[in-house]
Amino acid sequence: MDVIIENLPQYWDGFLRTLFLSLVSGIIALIFGTVLAAARVSPVAALRGFSMVYVEIVRNTPLTIAFFFAAVVLPRLGVTFQQFEVAAIIALSAYTAAFIAEAVRSGVNSVPVGQAEAARSIGMKFSQVLSLIILPQALRTVIPPLINILIALVKNSSVAGAFYVLELFGQGKQLANANGDAVMWVLVGVAFFYLLITIPLGYLASVVERKVAIAR
Amino acid sequence: MSSVLYDVPGPKARRVSLIGSIIGVIVIGGLLVLAVMTLAQQGIFDPKRWAVFQLPEVWALIAAGIGATLAAAAVAAVIAFPLGLLLCLLRISDNAWVRVPTRVVLEFLRGMPVVLMMLFVLLVFATSSFVAVVAGLVLYNSAIFAEIIRAGVQSLPKGQREAGLAIGLTSFQSRLTIELPQAIRRMLPSLVAQLVVLLKDTSLGYIVAYGELLRAVQVMADFLGPQYLFPVFFVAAAIYIAIDLAVSRLAIWLERRGSKRAAGGVAHVPVAGIPAAK
Amino acid sequence: MKAFLTRRKSLLVAASAALALSLSACGGSSSTTTNPPVAEKPSFAADSTMAKLSSAGKITIGTKFDQPLFGQKGLDGKPVGFDVEMGKLIAAKLGIPADKIEWVETVSANREQFIKQGKVDMIVATYTINDKRKAEVDFAGPYYEAGQALMVNKDNNSITKPEDVKGKNVCSVTGSTPASTIVEKYGAVLVPAATYSACLEPLRNKQVEAITTDNVILAGFVAKEPDAFKLASDQTFTKEPYGIGLKKDDTAFRMWINDQLEAFDKDGSYKKAWEDTAGTVIKTAPALPTIDRY
Lengths: 216, 278, 294
Prior knowledge:
Helix content of chain C: 25-40%
Shape of chain C: elongated
Strand order of the largest sheet of chain C: 10-9-11-8-12
Radius of gyration of chain C: 20 Å
Low-confidence stretches of chain A: none
Helix content of chain A: over 70%
Order of helices and strands of chain A: HHHHHHHHH
Strand content of chain A: under 5%
Low-confidence stretches of chain C: 1-31
Oligomer: heterotrimer
Structural class of chain A: mainly alpha
Number of strands of chain C: 13
Radius of gyration of chain A: 20 Å
Number of helices of chain C: 10
Structural class of chain C: alpha/beta
Largest interface: A-B, 71 and 58 residues
Distance between the termini of chain A: 47 Å
Strand content of chain C: 15-25%
């Protein structure tokens, strides 16, 4: 137990980096994922095709491969960065966006057909139908799964610890090595800090879920 | 393909979208060609580097890696599914003393990084790396399976349970014989999609030095020399993605088949394996 | 058709040439090392660990599978390296041939637990002897003394001593002792990786200034790519005596292994083990450190 208190600064440092990675990747993934979902239902065949191929491939790619491409292959292509967080954010947001796109798409599918028909019959364009009518309604059903995807994102950021970013899990491994006699407590400390992010998110998901259920 | 979201495009819109598509394909294709050429300049496609694939030992190690990946995934899936069912039953129990603690446990398991659980099992229980990988996967995925099945049960019409109770079944009998079978069939696509996640997550076994496919090729590249890292990694990544795609296809096939047969159709749930609100 | 055949043939030649090259660079494979002669019917005090292992005719040894020159998994799936040779020599003295050794991969984090729980009979895995570990397990040896060093790009002359990396990016393996040392003592910014070889790419791309770990491992990388990398200095800034990890309080076994290590030094098998493995790239052969008979 003491080992957690003694090493609070390291935990805190790792916690902040995990939070940072999750926040930035989460925002980018939300935007990119929504764009992908919109492309998937758009009139332009090439956009549909691109979105479909992207989502299909990325969803079936292990996260470690995504990290390898962002952190090792990209620099070879001339895209170098002094901050390794950039590579981690690229990997995490590219990966998470595919899942978000799927969630948003099924949300769009859950909106009754009549809504879109009504919108079109009053002369709205595709972009208006989607942004003013469909997406706001889809959002309600989509928020709980989206939050769950974001929880997964927070946990997935732990892989960055093996790809050059010293986040919470990496700090935990450092501490575990330095305190071989108290490994269990070191890891319990790491778990605590992850739960500090994921439990409130999970709670939020269930609250929204209940709200939406009543609204229907 | 027509959609309710937009009018069938006219000739002008079709022309514009065709031109846009061609430009898009050219841009993406150009970027890909550029990437390949940049890599080629660094000698990554030098046939000498790829010649390692003519060695049977290399393929034997890759095969061993695939075997280790599939073994961990299969064992974890076989344990996680029944455990998920059980957790689901406890989670929807009528007794709050059972329901609430189960919920706490599920929240905890869902909130833990899989790598952390693997490392914890390895270090605290001093297991082999295989057991640590399987345990980490089981702990996380059984929680997700439980949540998916729960969403399936809740998506059933109320009448199903009411009818079960009305003909004198106990609450447990109604769950087991009426609700769960329907819920599982409804949620089959989500369950199979979660299986893909489970399969992919075996690659996190690097944390406990489990010799799954990606670590197997990493170790092999270390032995052969750094110039072989890219070739063996590209091949391993391609194999990995092909396996995952095959399992995903199975999910889609099940969904099509299921939607014809399952009463009330298959519930459409986002593939992260997470229940949508009904 | 003919053109195809020639091309195929040339590819095959290239493959075997490349492989031969990399094998020699890696230092040691099962084909270049000959297994040590096995002692016939050695006798030990009844109930001693030696007697038990000897009569069982097999032994489980933990080592690393990703440590160049010391313990690295070869293409046939068996580990090769200096640690592995040490294990084979000791097993041979117990009357156990090399093919009856079961090699178990251990990582830094689980070595003490594996010994305590009896999952392995001994661990030879670049295992630094220190007081914290001594409280949990016993160490025979040391059989080799490494020290922490820095590896930099060939054209980098700004780093010659550990003090030079203050505030700079240095790559090392997450959860390793060298990683803690460079951060806590010298104020470097740690860039963590899963393996030491994973540090090579960021160094090549100049995203990190240096890689740090034990000098022998770095020397292995330098030997493979002398045009790309170099050691920042020949001096090491820590002492890492490698010991053989054993169950606590099995003093008889520990002392017996200590005796064997000294015997290996005298009869030249220590030197041969080095030359067959790490010695292929590191030309200066080490002397056996003074055994610590605590």
